[in-house]
UniProtKB/TrEMBL annotation, chains A, B:
Family: Belongs to the glycosyltransferase 92 family.
Location within or outside the cell: Membrane
The protein's name: Glycosyltransferase family 92 protein
Pfam families, A to Z: Glyco_transf_92
EC category: transferase
Taxonomic classification: Eukaryota, Viridiplantae, Streptophyta, Embryophyta, Bryophyta
Record's keyword annotation contains Transferase: yes
Length: 452, 452
């Protein structure tokens, strides 16, 4: 599949260090006032606490709009409400169609910026911003190319804005057909930032299951913020080679203190990356397994109502330590996670359990970890768990040893099991899918080692 | 008096712009990790939202301690709790006494930093910090000179601390006698940041009154954050020339968004500036007038209890518009503020009215606008208003026109006057002091113009 490369998405060119030289903010000549009288006090600054704006990626949304995903200094946003501005600078001829393709004076077209802060105020030094830049006319559709410029300001009277070229389209790059159906995939998976000491076996199992679940008209984006060590990459490599998986190396964002490995930034970047790749984009974690009732199909569930552009899924929380004793062995390590952890927590009234979701990415303006609050079109369906749900194997991903700790006598397996003051009941739904999953894996990528 | 210059206080040398070159924070070689695999995403930073640390001043507190007053990035402080470190680098010989005075290898003595955040969480981009650096032994007391170095850190694993030389003592500068009584003054006045379109007449009146109130063993520090325009400086000039007044030009701090013209920063800087200049330092505004019951004296009030090192004063809020009609004139502009505004608000139960205060600066570690929360020794006396209090002429300082708006018939002057739903009663206490004040002014500095 060449689709990923034909859809060229724009992010800053991946240059290695050293760091770009930083110019101090160009404070206006306010200083001159201070020389005139009195005992002049100098307030000597040191170091740099935070940048004003950090680009992650910019994506064209259509003939006259773009989405810019980044981080902004949180206190400046809160206290100064700094305005943003954007403009398109055509490479030649004009913003829209027509005109000769010979070199002409660049034309500047001013756009309007709509700012969204999608991270629920979780940001620390930085807050995630999604900026939608819209023009009143088509820009660059004559394929002459151009630059999208963002002005990020400080919101005070002392500093000029930062002028940032966030997107560059070269001559003939613009391709109108990319923005319309049909899309190259049915489904795209967008994962959150993955960090920590991840168990390769857990990734292997999840990958095999979901490659099968979504089928081969699907693509998976993972975001490595430190979790994808050598052994994890080894079990994913066959899928990468088959073009099913892309691992985005986002380790550099660790130095910018947004929130929790900048997960809100990452899901938004992936949202736009996926926008014209597939009809539906799924957002859930790699310790969560999607499940569809075999009486229906994933496609039927998603298409049940044309007005529905977002669907949120119920969670089945699974105990990460209760297993059924297998009298034939003491070694549970070769059993897959959804083969041996088969006890679900009994849900309590009045408690809000997390949900995950899928959206039609082109119909939302920004997104979050559990849902999109910025729908442009259509409605959100909180679908019933009997149709579709997900199984959450919380606390298993970075477990580098046997997970089974509490064993149930198989003769009593249907009884309530109480562990750590929580009641559990058996749910062998996922157990049924183990054999087909292993078979699918063998057929698709062959043998893999088991590395816990 | 040469005392102000003999007590050399340390703040960054008053160099004019251009800005010091800023080096980007020296991120550790974390970047190298990102090159190794996957689709590498670059997070391109732009601009600088805020500095890590901004020095205002550093003051020696004694043979083995110093106080550093500055601003720190607020989100870094809140989320990273960055540690501070300090050390003394002697110019030669050693930290303490003894040793030859010939050039010797510099000796580094590590101190301990105690951090105080005195601004009640009001900070926006910056929070005020007062750092007390203490050593286990005397430093620099051999008069060999030295540097005090502060390390301000980022509190993350990616950035090295900023090394800041905050204080330099030259050979023979150290003077042990400065830290002990007797002090050159009885009283020092520390004013908050003054901004806006200040009425010169109001400053003239306040100055004459308080120069008289505190007597000539007193000194006044004003802090100009934009309010001391030409005409204001004109009416203060005679006092400046007599050495009674110092105007600190703090306009540069306006570019750093702390809180309210960085007033918490300013009062702390002045606290330390005043520490060994006078027994008592007063903190109140230039629309507030101190008053002592003539049956006693200011000195007697302050010295009533040797254990009292801080005294807070009750406020008498004065209406800024009620005057007694003077049938002999229509022009009230030549009457002084405390001559014509003679109606006090009737205080309501259950409402907390602001107080102002005086401290023995050497007995507190940091301070605030209404009191010090960081007393090292002694106790705080909430003194009764009959002994000492202050009259607050709120809303008169930047009034560039006649303040009197509501006139009371002199025959009814003792009745309750209700204006804007607030009750007022006459209080002519300050009126009694107008004549002596004007006389004192004439005798001390001669005639001044009346510029509203």
């Amino acid at each position: 599949m060449t689709t990923l490369t034909s859809m060229r998405t724009h992010h800053p060119p991946p240059l290695p260090p050293p760091l770009p030289p930083l110019c101090p903010p160009n404070y206006l000549q306010y200083y001159n006032r201070y020389l005139s009288h009195g005992e002049v006090r100098v307030f000597k600054p040191h170091g740099m606490a935070a940048h004003l704006f950090i680009e992650m990626g910019t994506y064209r949304g259509g003939p006259r709009s773009f989405s810019i995903v980044g981080l902004a200094s949180k206190p400046i946003d809160i206290f100064h409400h700094p305005p943003y501005a954007c403009e398109w600078i055509s490479r030649g001829g004009g913003g829209g169609g027509g005109g000769s393709s010979e070199a002409a004076a660049p034309v500047v077209v001013k756009g309007e910026v709509h700012k969204i802060l999608p991270d629920w105020n979780y940001g620390r030094l930085y807050t995630v911003v999604v900026l939608t830049c819209k023009f009143k006319e088509d820009v660059g559709t004559d394929k002459s190319g151009g630059d999208l410029v963002l002005y990020a300001s400080y919101g005070d009277k002392y500093r000029e804005p930062e002028r940032i070229v966030v997107f560059t389209e070269v001559k003939d790059e613009y391709n109108a057909t990319l923005f319309n159906t049909p899309f190259p995939y049915d489904y795209v998976y967008c994962g959150s930032s993955i960090y920590g000491d991840v168990s390769p076996q857990r990734m292997r199992e999840w990958m095999a299951y979901h490659a099968n679940f979504f089928g081969n008209r699907s693509h998976f984006f993972f975001h490595d913020s430190g979790g994808f060590h050598d052994d994890v990459r080894r079990v994913l490599e066959p899928w990468v080679k088959q073009g099913r998986v892309t691992i985005q190396n986002i380790q550099q964002q660790e130095i910018y203190d947004g929130y929790y490995h900048n997960q809100f930034l990452v899901v938004n970047d992936c949202l736009f990356r996926s926008r014209f790749l597939a009809n539906w984009t799924f957002f859930f974690d790699v310790d969560e397994y999607m499940y569809v009732n075999p009486a229906t199909t994933l496609s039927a569930v998603l298409e049940q109502d044309k007005n529905v552009t977002q669907i949120t899924f119920e969670q089945v929380p699974i105990s990460n330590e209760i297993c059924i004793r297998d009298n034939s062995t003491n070694d549970y390590s070769r059993k897959w996670i959804f083969e041996k952890l088969v006890y679900r927590k009994v849900l309590k009234r009045g408690i809000r359990y997390d949900r995950k979701y899928a959206v039609q990415a082109r119909h939302v303006e920004a997104t979050g970890v559990h849902m999109s609050m910025n729908m442009l079109k259509g409605k959100n369906l909180y679908v019933k768990g009997d149709q579709i749900r997900y199984y959450h194997y919380h606390g298993t991903l970075d477990k580098r040893s046997e997970v089974c700790k509490h064993f149930v006598d198989p003769r009593n397996k249907t009884e309530v099991v109480t562990v750590q003051h929580e009641n559990h009941r058996i749910d062998e739904t996922m157990f049924e899918i183990v054999a087909p999953t292993k078979q699918y894996e063998l057929e698709t990528i062959g043998n893999l080692p088991t590395i816990i």
